[in-house]
Amino acid sequence: MVASSATLAFRSAGLRARALPLAQRSLICYSRAAVQLQSSLRCYSSEPKPETAEKAKEAVKETAETAKEATKEIKDAPKEAPAPVAPKKGGRRSKKFFCTSLALALLVGLVYGSDTRASIHRYAVPPLIRLLYPDAEEAHHFTVEALKQLHRFGLHPRERGDPDGDGALATEVFGYTLSNPIGISGGLDKHADIPDALFDIGPAIVEVGGTTPLPQEGNPRPRVFRLPSQHAIINRYGLNSKGADHMAEVLQERLRDFAYAQGFGEHELAQERVLNGEANVPPGSLVSGKLLAVQVAKNKATPDSDIEAIKRDYVYCVDRLAKYADILVVNVSSPNTPGLRDLQATAPLTAILSAVVGAAKGVERKTKPFVMVKVSPDEDADEQVSGICDAVWGSGVDGVIVGNTTNRRPAPLPKGSILPEDEQPIVKETGGYSGPQLADRTVALVARYRALLDKPNMPELEKRMQEQTATAKEAEPDRENVPAVGAAEPVHKYGRKTIFASGGITNGAQAQAALDAGASVAMMYTGVTYGGIGTVTRVKQELRQQK
Ligand SMILES: Cc1cc2nc3c(=O)[nH]c(=O)nc-3n(C[C@H](O)[C@H](O)[C@H](O)COP(=O)(O)O)c2cc1C
């Protein structure tokens, strides 16, 4: 009966607490169960029934007899048997001391281990994971699952001491003031399992996905390979995805938990109130000063030649996911889905992006998600880059993520070195290459996109701009300093396109170079897998030191 009361207490407490952060949930469950358990015990002790008392007496008698027999056996035992050791004086005290020290050591270990600044995260954990999981994909799954479980119990690594609190790294993106200009790139949290654990390690942007409309397996394994000497990875995952509906469920549950924890209640209206800004946090990230990006892609089985079907794929994902995103990212640059990168040609890209922008505008939410397109570093000929920029302006998307993995094989670092023998077959694996060797090219490409996006060459856009300027002049004839119509004017008239940089960023100097080239956010993936969970904190610290 006591046990079943406790179980009931766990269940009822669990139902209500489901909508709270898990660390709090467990505490609530435990404390409610404990209260009920105590009251059940109280029932037993305060109202003993006569037959229960009788049974208790019998049990006491039986126990006493057994004890007598046991004492007799000890007395009759052969003399050479070792005499029982009498407890030492002060034994209890030393036991207490030992327990207290152990508890203290555990506490200190926990505080240290859950701080992103702990050097164990940089120097011990990544090599240990590589040793335990020679298959890089298994290491990826292990890390995501470990972070998920640690976050559930509030034991996950996090940035302590609010280093962004001084505002030194604050930056404006889409009208939001972000706490810092660092992001986690797509693919690390493919199924939106750990956005909150990732936010807690310090970035202002977390990109989850890419997700496809229908679930798909991706390419056969093995499909992720390490080049440890280069701190680089080659992957050909092929956009393995649990599908947009699954991700929508996960993100909705996250929103429901948040709304309940904030005191908005459990009903659907509570979620709408959070989505419409009543909690004073962005509707996607649910964290002040941070934004959640959700990346969408097409299914491999959708024919590359059927633009209408491809548009339907992207729009399907947007319809399911836009509600939970601050930014939607259109992936047309993964090298591992055949034909995907061909969608970066101006006409198909404009058609796809226009469809996504239209669908994003239709989301039932006060503020609509912004839309960005993630482009490949390999489509870098002048006409390709300017064609993509035309599609960006033509479709009305809000920005570009410049960079992804590359099909090329960059020269090893340091310059002039050669790969160790065991890595030479690995570098020939098919797939997208990522790692610090990409950084210089990313910075150069960001600068080119910045220049082109700031001076759109679309004639119709310039015509619209001139018309608007003329209207503005007519409306405000007395206004002084009306800006002259110049090449850079459309940027101010139509809103400057935002750029995020992704590719090879692993330290503060590289992040700063990307920002100086015109990016608003420097994103990381491979750098975190080699540098550990404290990489974002370290890069931000290096950025601060450069200021
Ligand atoms: C294992 C792995 C999986 C990735 N999955 C995706 C993905 O699903 N979608 C995407 O747009 N980029 C994906 N990327 C690319 C990264 O988001 C990033 O753009 C690229 O790795 C370059 O940045 P980095 O050098 O900081 O890793 C993946 C990269 C890696 C290493």
From TrEMBL:
UniProt keyword Nuclease, yes or no: no
Catalytic activity: (S)-dihydroorotate + a quinone = orotate + a quinol
Principal location: membrane
Coiled coil: none
Co-factor requirement: FMN
Ranges for domain Dihydroorotate dehydrogenase catalytic: 169-453
Region (Disordered): 62-92
Database matches in PANTHER family: DIHYDROOROTATE DEHYDROGENASE (QUINONE), MITOCHONDRIAL, DIHYDROOROTATE DEHYDROGENASE (QUINONE), MITOCHONDRIAL-RELATED
Protein name per its UniProtKB record: Dihydroorotate dehydrogenase (quinone), mitochondrial
Organism: Aspergillus chevalieri
